[in-house]
Amino acid sequence: LRLIQRHHGSPGKALLRDSGHPNVGGDRIYGVHIMHIRTMAGERTFTEQDFCRLEHLGGGTLPPALAEKWGGRTVPTLIPSSEVPTTTVTMYSQVEVRDIRSQRKQRVTLCYPRHAEPNLGFISVLSPVGSSLLGLSVGDIAHWETPHGDPCAVEVSALLFQPEASGDYTT
After folding, report:
1. Residue 120 half-sphere exposure, CB side, CA atoms within 13 Å?
2. Do 116 and 109 meet the contact criterion of CB atoms below 8 Å apart?
3. Measured CA angle at 153 (ends 108, 83), to 5 deg
4. How far apart, in whole angstroms, are the C-alpha atoms of residue 109 and residue 96?
5. For residue range 103-113, what is the model confidence (pLDDT) as tens digits?
6. pLDDT tens, 40-56?
């Protein structure tokens, strides 16, 4: 299902298009309520633009790294870039996180895979850390596991830069 229009008169409602699904003959448009994704890390809010770009990375669906993270549940809350709260982690946001165990603080910038440079703090949205942070708000806790299965958790302690908050709705 793809988001094709958000109903501005009905909070939480959107039009979704199902094209090419093997059990559906042709395109069908559904008026549905968008559900919040509820995770250990809280509700997730994406800009419509970020969500569409992420779908593009996955060839028309969310990349497996993101879909698996959210247990195959429905889309997060989608809102226009101009309406995203300034406390929400979006793509290219610079975030200060605090490790729950060590209390160590670190700055990271959430980016697309082609711009990832972990040594410089540019974390891919498809990495376990990146997929855990996207769509969270200041004060939320991101959870993920290392490749060896060790649990990790950080608090989003501050949003140092968010493109939308500075009026950039195209990055």
Report:
1. 6
2. no
3. 55
4. 9
5. 999 999 999 99
6. 334 688 898 998 898 88
Residue given tokens 């299902």 in the structure block: 1
Exposed e or buried b per residue across 47-71, where buried means at least 16 C-beta atoms within 10 angstroms of its C-beta? bbbbbeebbebeeeebbebbeebbe
CB atoms within 10 A of CB 147: 6
Q: What is the largest CA-CA distance in the chain?
A: 54
Q: Would you say residue 21 has pLDDT above 70?
A: no
Q: What angle do CA 41, 70, 28 make, to 5 degrees?
A: 135
Does residue 80 sit in helix, strand or coil?
A: coil
Kindly report the length of the chain: 171
Tell me 108's DSSP state: E
